[in-house]
Amino acid sequence: MSDTSLIYCSCWDPRNLGPKKLIRTIPFSAARGKPKLSPISAALKERNYFLPPQIKPFSGPRGKVLTRKYALHREKKMPEDTVKVSPGFSYSQSEDEISVLLGDEMFERSKKPKDKPVVKALLPRSDFVADLENQIMELTSIIEQMNRDHQNAQKLLREEMEHRYNELQKEFETSKREFKETHTLELAALEEKYKSSLKMEKTITQGKLEGMVKEYKYLKNMFRMYQDSIADEMEEKWSRRKVEWEKNEKMEREKVLLQQKYRLTKKFEVDVEEEKRKLEDLHLQTCDKFNKEREEFVKQHDVDLIQLEELQKAKEIVEEELQGQSLILESLNASLYHTQVDLQKEKNNVLQLEQLLQKKLNEMEEKYKFITQNLTEENTELRHMLILKNEELFQERNKQVKHEISYHDSFIENENQNKKEKS
C-alpha cells in the first residue's frame, strides 16, 4: 500500500495543480505514536466543498485562487469581510468576485518541537478525533451537494422535455390548420373556375340557338311565299320538334351537370378523408413514440435513484465503521473515491441521455418536415389531375355539341330536299 492518505484524481483538480499538493501522511509506528491527520487537498478546497455552511456560495461563478505572490499585490484591495477558515486558507467575497487565499501553511506539515518529550506528543487525541469528525462531515456535505445537483439536473431535463413536446404539438396544430386553409382556398378557386367555364358554355350554346332560330324564321318566311298551308303545317311540326328538342337538351344538360357535380364532390370528400386519416395516423404514431421514450427515461431515472439510495446506505455503513475504528482511514478514502467515481459515471450517463434526447428530437423535426413536403407534393399532383380531368370533360362536351349541330344540319337539309321533291 502507498503512504498517501488521499488518492489523486483529475476530476478533483480542475485548475491542473497536479498531485504535488497532496500531503503524505506519516506511516504508523510505535515510536511516533498516533498518526496525524493530513490536510485537505487544495483542489477540493478550490471546489468550495469544505467551506462552512454560512459562507459557502449556493451558486455563481468560482472565485480565483490566489497564491502568496499575488496576495502581496492584493493586500491593499482585500475587502473587509475576509474570513479565515483554517491556517493558510482565507476566503473573501465582494460584489464583483469571490477570492480564496491559499498560504504556504496549508501545504506544509506541522513541525514538532524537538525539545518536547514524547508524552506531550501523545496528548492531542481529541484533536485527532475532532479532525476526523470534521472531515467526515465535510465529505457528507460534498455527497449531499452532488445529490442535490443531480436531482436539479434531472428536473431541468424533465422540464425541457415537456417544453419541447408542447412546442412540437403547437407546430403540428399550426401546420394542420394551414393545410386545411390552403385546401379550402384551392377548392373555392376550382369551383369558381368550373362555374365560369359553365357560364361560357351556356353563352356559346345560347348564341348558337339564337342563330338557329334566326335561320328557322328566315326559312319559315320563304315557305310562306310558296304555300300558306304547307307553311302552317311545317310551323306546327317545327314548333313541336323545337319544344321536344329543348326539353331533351335541358334534360341531358341537367343529367351531365348532376353527374359531374356528384363525381367531383365524391372525389373531393374521399381525398379530404384520406388526408385527415393520414394526418391522424402520423400524429398518433409520433405521440406513441414520444410516450415510449418518456417512459424509458422515467425508468432510467428510477434506476438511478435506486443506485443513489444504495450508495447512501453504503456511505452510512462506512460512517458507522469510522466512528468505532480510526485505523481504517485508507479504506474509507478508497470507498469515498469509488463513490465519487460512480457519481461521475452517473453524470456522464445523464449527459449521454441528454444527447440522445436531442438527437431524437432532431429526428422528429426532420420527420415532420418530410411529411409536410410529401403532403404539398400530393396536393400539387391532385390539382394537376383535376385540371386534366376538367379539360377532358370539356373536350367531350364540345364533341357532343358539334355532333348534335351536324346532326341537326343534316336533318334540315333532308327536309328541304323532301319539300323540293313534293313541290
UniProtKB/TrEMBL annotation:
Keyword Hydrolase: yes or no?
A: no
**GO terms for cellular component:** cytoplasm
| Superkingdom as given in the UniProt entry | Eukaryota
Q: Does the keyword Coiled coil apply?
A: yes
Q: Which residues form a coiled coil?
A: 129-178, 265-381
Sorted keywords for this record are: Coiled coil
UniProt cross-references to InterPro entries, sorted A to Z = FLACC1 (IPR026674)
* Protein name from the UniProt record: Flagellum associated containing coiled-coil domains 1
Question: Which species is the source of this protein?
Answer: Monodelphis domestica
